[in-house]
Amino acid sequence: MTTAPPLRIVLADDERMVRTALRAILAAEPDLTVVGEAATGAEAVSVVREARPDVVLMDVRMPEVDGIRATERILAVSTEQPPRIIVVTTFENDSYVYDALRAGAAGFLLKRADADTLVQAVRLVARSDTLLFPSAVRALAEEHARAGAAPPAWVARLTGREGEVLRLMAAGLTNAEIARRLAVGPATVKTHVAAVLAKTGARDRTQAVIAAYEAGVMNIR
């Protein structure tokens, strides 16, 4: 049986001690390997370009270029499969986190998270078929919802089943879990997810769910 190569990770944080601690935790896992470090957002963009990681752990607040701008730049210059970016923050209601998610980050992680949570978060976003901390993402999105605004045009283009899939995505279910919930095949779910992303104009599931909450249409049927 062929063993999959370890997930490649870049650490971006302006505190050396934080990077050292993260590296030690990740190095203990045989399926994870740290391939680069950066102390600023600008360095992170350069390191990611050279190291081509699968996942980036990105401190949201850094000097020179913060995690939001770095996320935008990394995703803008990625010509192949872009890395999945996890923004790291002290407070889960940090407005910087929401801006980073809108910029394309796949999820976020609290700095007080324990080692097991960190490792599972990296594996989760690498799999890319679920949200990282969906309840917190929901709370952030609801704070920024456009109260009273007319729904965007894409809402009317969603089918009933696509709306159902979107709600289950927002709940943090994986494709396999959605398939079981709806009693359909995984391939069918993938087709619906792809349609949701196309109609919302979202890069990934996180952005699609944020768009839905901002539009105030999470009760779509």
Automatic annotation (TrEMBL):
Positions bearing 4-aspartylphosphate: 59
Stored CDD domains: LuxR_C_like (cd06170), REC_NarL-like (cd17535)
Stored SUPFAM superfamilies: C-terminal effector domain of the bipartite response regulators (SSF46894), CheY-like (SSF52172)
Classification via Gene3D superfamilies: 3.40.50.2300
Record domain HTH luxR-type: where: 151-216
Keywords, in A-Z order: DNA-binding, Phosphoprotein, Transcription, Transcription regulation
Name of a matching Pfam family: GerE
Response regulatory domain sequence ranges: 8-126
Domain of life: Bacteria
Annotated PANTHER family: TRANSCRIPTIONAL REGULATORY PROTEIN NARL-RELATED, TWO-COMPONENT RESPONSE REGULATOR
Protein name: Response regulator transcription factor
Organism of derivation: Streptomyces carpinensis
